[in-house]
Amino acid sequence: MPFPINRPRRLRRSKSLRRMVRETHVASQDLIDPLFVVEGSGIREEVRSMPGVFRSSVDRLPEEIEAVVAAGIPAVILFGIPAEKDALGSGAYADRGIVQQAIRRIKGLAPELTVIADLCLCEYTDHGHCGVVEGDRVLNDPTLELLARTAISQAGAGADIIAPSDMMDGRVARIRRALDENSFDEIPILSYAAKYASAFYGPFRDAAESAPSFGDRRAYQIDPANAREAMREVELDIAEGADIIMVKPALPYLDVLRRIRDRHDDLPIAAYQVSGEYAMVKAAAKAGWVDGRRVMVESLTSIKRAGADLILSYFAKEFCGLPEEMRAS
Ligand code: PBG
Fold first, then answer.
1. If you write DSSP's letter for every residue of 48-70 in order, what string do you get?
2. Does residue 142 contact residue 166 with C-beta atoms inside 8 Å?
3. DSSP alpha helices (H): ranges in 41-188?
4. Is position 17 within any domain?
5. 198 part of a folded domain
6. Which backbone phi and psi does 168 adopt, to 5 degrees?
7. Nearest CA, atom 8, ligand 1
8. What is the pLDDT of residues 309-323, one digit of tens each?
9. Residue range of the domain that includes 194
10. pLDDT below 70 — which residues of the chain?
11. 106 alpha carbon – ligand 1 mean position (Å)
12. What is the CATH number of the domain that holds 33?
């Protein structure tokens, strides 16, 4: 029935009505807080390009973890910055590696908090690539062996979820097998299945000191122009045993997120609102060009609306600190 019978504005008249008909709500349990852990002691330094995000040494983790728990956030994902790097990224699978230390510390501080270990070699290799390098190539199958080793090491330290972000072919199957053979059959894999070769990772590479020293990651991460290819990656990862699928970055790839959600209604989907997405909002808000709080809320709501069950976001703590009426834009 057309106008004047139908007037959609009737349900937008008051704050109370808008709240009643709101379709999407972001809650603290939807969010995952990324944490950067550095070697050393007494360190808590702000990442220059990511105001409000810190790199902490293991002894300074208690204050970070206290804030996460107080905010009601159920999980953190860990990124380690080792003191030394080498060609094979041995810091990633060292028993006393930075992430292994951090996992043990966090599980001691907050046993109920879910600790997700990002699994990639790029923070640990001296060339900054996500795998074993030969000439100017990143070798797929030899990298799988190091990823499997790292997964076992992280699970052994107490990680609750393993999250491979390297984009090597077959890594989910290889990691699943390694975990199962080492009695970690109950540890889920959160796969960065649709991970794009994105310029939005810029600030993260500052924070994690993981920029490639030559070339780029286009020979293993997905071309931003491709959505069907992402669907194929997702199918493969599910077939290989992924328990949760991730899309990354989030906002520029909401179409991909929606396609995955429409095709796979039977498993959880995560989206990573990455460093560049965060930094842009912070920079524009600082310049007074946008309302930072409202853009944060609108972005997170849009990611959820597009189909994400879980959102990895540097805004996690800030969002959870808002009173309920400020959590809608
Ligand atoms: C590791 C990894 C990256 C990010 C998460 N895991 C960087 C990359 O692929 O270059 C980016 C996260 C962000 O930008 O916030 N491979």
1. TTEEEEEEEEGGGHHHHHHHHHH
2. no
3. 61-70, 98-109, 140-157, 171-181
4. no
5. yes
6. -80, 150
7. 201
8. 999 999 999 999 999
9. 24-326
10. none
11. 22
12. 3.20.20.70
